[in-house]
# Entry
Amino acid sequence: MRPSTVDALVAVGLDPGEVEQIVRRALAEDLGPDWLDVTSVATVPADQTGTADLVARAAGVVAGLPVAAAVFDAAGSLAPARELPAAAGTVDWVPSTKDGAWVARGDALATVTGPVRALLAAERTALNLLCRISGVATHTRAWADALAGTGATVLDTRKTTPGLRILEKYAVRAGGGTNKRMGLYDVAMVKDNHKLAAGSISRAYALVRAVFPEVPVQVEVTTVAEAVEAVEAGADFLLCDNMPVPLLREVVAAVAGRAELEATGGLRLEVAREYAQTGVDYLSVGALTHSSPILDIALDLRPAG
# Structure
């Protein structure tokens, strides 16, 4: 990976090593154990170089440009087993915009120059990741815009594509949302099954605190009484699960600022502002990562000469 790509990933809060692992696995799905693009090897001379443009085919928030750059970096280092001579070589990446920017249909996002075989081998993997990340960012921006001025923030969840969590949660940040927990290891969340196993909310909270005193603890509640019990047990973050707007207002009044409150469970964009205006601090939306459509982006190879 080129130093400029590493720097770009670090600048947006992504770990270059983790991104490289994702990129290598994704390329392997397309190129197989021999790292071979049979069509390009058959039709493109090994020494042919060219330039291609990544172009938005729809309007939205672009995100994941440094990740796409990492794909082209990796493709430029490929040495397919059946290629004589190898078409490996440096692929130059020049972005035309930045992650988080709103782009229009037809806008150029970046330009890549290098061995044409490498560009074509990287094309689908780079676009799969870039379109996915940009799609999540675009969806998140719609929620962030809907909540603007309410004091509430949109949160993501763990309902992510296996293997792509760090990228999809990055996309949420790029779109104006906020990450919740990364996994089961960094934040404790007492949910219904934990309450049943422990016997009560207060008992479950106390058990987590005793075993992991340094870990933040969040508690899921479904009634005003549960919210009060959780706060009196010491919880400072409550998930208000599947509560209608009137009930949320009651919880906000009962908690009276003693804990942060998150509305969660089947929320829809068209009612987002109504929920935010109850006084909750967050709206948690699993659809940001499990149901976002891609942002359509293409790679257009420029004619030779």
Summary: Confidence is low (pLDDT under 50) at residues 81-87. The domain at 144-290 is CATH 3.20.20.70 (TIM Barrel). The chain is about 45% helix and 15% strand. Residues 127 and 193 are 40 Å apart (CA to CA).
